[in-house]
Amino acid sequence: MSALKQLWLTADSATRIIVANVAVFILLNVPVSILHLMNAGGGYNWFGDWLYLNGSLRNLLFHPWTIFTHMFVHGGVMHLLFNMLSLFFIYQLFKRYFSDRQFVNVYFAGGLAGGLTFILSVNLFPLFGGMAAGHFALGASAAVMAVLVSVCTYRPSDHVFLFGVFRMQLRWIAIIFVLLDLINISGGNEGGHLAHLGGALFGFLWGINLGKGRDISAFFQPVQDFFKFEQKSKSRLKVAHKAPVSNENWNSSRKAKEEKVNEILDKISRSGYDSLSKSEKALLFELSKDKDT
Questions:
Q1: 57-70 tens-digit pLDDT
Q2: Does the predicted model carry a pTM greater than 0.70?
Q3: CA atoms of 283 and 285, how far apart (whole Å)
Q4: Cα 188 to chain center, whole Å?
Q5: Among 40, 65, 89, 234, which lies 20 to 30 A Cα-Cα from 59?
Q6: DSSP result, 35-76
Q7: Cα–Cα distances in Å, from 85 out to 81, 107, 177?
């Protein structure tokens, strides 16, 4: 159990989001399978009422948490697999230029933008026939799209090798994905494609504004800080009995800790977690509790 805790503490934000999505998928679908074997269906619809994003404004009023929970719910194994694989590879690209904190902000702000675009679309476009309550949004696609388009907008002339073969500028990758959603609107899942475009629009605006020195995803930062409040409080109480430390000594100590953590993480990337000695594992665990992520 301690090994799992250490792995979680040292994991990057994308890995944690992937693990959370997989865990939610398992927790929701195992009971459904059991109910199916017992010939007692309906469990999946009940979960949907509480976790999916319903197009009805009235439903959103009584289930406001669904604007976030719908990002962690997927309609099947392939839906989950495609989104998580896309997230994993796009995160590697994003991390070339930005921090984990920025990734989390863009991911969730983009997913939020996708959800709001979905709600507006099903309530405004004649296609949906005034039956917004009959439409649902689920999945991480809009959030993933926001991350992809954000980095492609910020560094449009940079190149990547698509499928390891085709050398392509980032701007063209973003354009292709946006065009695919636009083209496929008439082929079904209209609300889903519109949500993707909402996420893409946020990613585009984020990249443009960041180039001008403005981070429009910063509004999500207090949410990150909120979930780290207890950890920070614990850290402050832990050192309250110690003598004051000068800024110079504190910065020197922090730099040494960060360098040690980076050395251990490099070793993990080269040889795997099991290659660490017991003392390195214990040290990584202790340092990671104080490391400012």
A1: 999 999 999 999 99
A2: yes
A3: 5
A4: 26
A5: 40
A6: HHHTT---HHHHHHHHHSEES-HHHHHH-TTHHHHGGG--SS
A7: 6, 15, 15
